[in-house]
Design brief:
- The protein has 316 residues and is of the alpha/beta class.
- The protein has one domain: 3-Layer(aba) Sandwich (Rossmann fold), CATH 3.40.50.1820.
- It contains 13 helices and eight strands.
- It has an eight-stranded mixed β-sheet, sandwiched between helices.
- Helix 6 crosses helix 10.
């Protein structure tokens, strides 16, 4: 009987080891990720003690470059559809924000919006962009964009916000992000990463999850495992949630286009879209039928059509 019980216990322990081993995922060094995710024209720019992953494409003589800012947990590849079309006629700059993508964590541990705004200015200086830009941001990248336009109005010619953050959340964070935000869960969230959960998290950001490709899931999964990114995600969330600066939205004074997916469940269009529209004088609001939170990734053609139409009319 004792032997049977010991045998059962060993089977149970082995099963637990196998189960944990299937979801226990160590960090990956950045050099292991570069062959797939840093294909040309990627470059790495030294700034604030980091090697910042940048793609700077298109017309070098463009007087007003387009700068694209991704959101929390994402990377510069979320703009692939936009960059592939815009680079024929514009200079297009995008980069992995500190804490995300191949750039990885900020050694100072600062992920505040004040830091990100200053970082953007320093990066543009380093790239030789001293004049105004068209600044486009999604989610927390949108918050970064509109705050930068308030702090440096002379450096922003036009502003495009795609489901921007900035108001206190009207819906809870998805469970995975709640866990990442909780410092008591750090050990789990920094070591356990089922790919199925990464897929589920990405699907939440899409209005139509059938548009989510396996390659996109691979990208989210791989870049989340970049050394230090999982810890940085928790730090970023803790620095942003509850620290919104809604009073500054009224201070946005540049021409602004607001794009919002009707099926955005991360930051629902109601009430945030109308609040941004009302508080940014002269802004234009476009609700994108069926799109989710990362509309530029899910629907690059539709979002670009709205952008180009607005850009043409704004120039008249």
């Amino acid at each position: 009987m004792l032997r049977i019980m010991v045998g059962i216990a060993m089977v149970v322990v082995l099963g637990i080891v196998v189960m944990v081993g299937s979801v226990w995922k160590s960090d990956l060094p950045v050099d292991a990720l570069k062959p797939r995710w840093a294909q040309p024209p990627s470059q790495f720019v030294t700034l604030d003690g980091m090697q910042v992953h940048v793609r700077d494409e298109g017309r070098r003589d463009d007087p007003i470059p387009i700068v694209l800012l991704h959101g929390t947990g994402s990377s510069l590849q979320t703009w692939d559809g936009w960059a592939s079309q815009l680079k024929a006629t514009h200079r297009v700059i995008r980069f992995d924000r500190p804490g995300f993508g191949l750039t990885g964590p900020n050694s100072s541990g600062d992920y505040s919006m004040d830091y990100y705004s200053g970082f953007l200015g320093r990066l543009l200086d380093q790239l030789g962009v001293n004049g105004p830009v068209i600044l486009v941001g999604n989610s927390s990248g949108g918050q970064m964009a509109w705050l930068f336009s308030v702090a440096h109005p002379g450096r922003v010619a036009r502003l495009v916000l795609i489901s921007p953050a900035g108001y206190p959340r009207s819906v809870p964070l998805p469970q995975g992000l709640q866990m990442a935000m909780n410092p008591k869960m750090d050990f789990i969230t920094r070591h356990i990463l089922p790919k199925s959960q990464v897929r589920k998290g990405a699907e939440i950001s899409y209005g139509d999850p059938s548009k989510l490709t396996d390659e996109t899931v691979d990208r989210y999964y791989d870049l989340t495992r970049r050394e230090g990114n999982r810890k940085a995600l928790g730090q970023t969330l803790r620095a942003s949630i509850g620290h919104e600066d809604t009073a500054s939205i009224n201070q946005v004074k540049v021409q602004t286009l607001i794009l919002w997916g009707s099926n955005d469940t991360m930051i629902p269009a109601s009430p945030d879209a109308e609040q941004f529209h009302q508080r940014i004088a002269g802004s234009k609001l476009v609700i994108l039928p069926g799109d989710g939170h990362v509309a530029q990734e899910e629907d690059p053609d539709g979002t670009l059509a709205a952008f180009n139409q607005w850009l043409t009319s704004a120039a008249k």
